[in-house]
Amino acid sequence: MERFKSFFKTSLIGGITVILPIFIFVIVMKWLFGWVTDIIRPVTSLVIIQSHISKYIADALVLAFIVIGCFIIGIIVKTKIGLYIHTNLEKRILKIAPGYSIIKETVMQFIGKQFPFSKVVLVRIYENDTLLTGFITDIHPDGIYTVFVPTAPNPTSGYIYHLKSEYVQHVDISVEEAMRSIITCGVGSKKIVSSYLKKISEK
Description:
The chain crosses the membrane at residues 12-36, 56-77. The protein is of the alpha+beta class.
């Protein structure tokens, strides 16, 4: 009986671990698709009226045109004339728009050449043995580190600390692995702690 219970439990958990991520992925993609199609609905409706095609084909066409449009604009701004127009447009019009600079900097951080989080660290913000997982976002000439410490399980919110180097311990772990441990509320943190202990023992 105990063997059957164990078999049933492990099989059920195994099935859930396979199905649940797929289910969540489908829900997220469905939500994202719905959000995008709601934004482009006015254009999609116009395409449906003019071409008499189905909604899904119209959505796909509009999305394709948006992607192609972004690609063409990207090519244009690489030219001297395009760069000149874009620079002057930003200086004279867009810079005046409330929040434009912040939005641009945020977008450039995530899709530009600079990744927002350069390295994973463990920090001691209370000057004791309490360790927090964080990400270096900036390093200053005086040796001060700016570190973002995200909250779990939602890493998009958190706290920013400016710390001396003695309160920042580097660990050999990727940003993706650290993010995964935060999203799962600490599950899989063994590698982070092991790397920290190894660094300490080497000193």
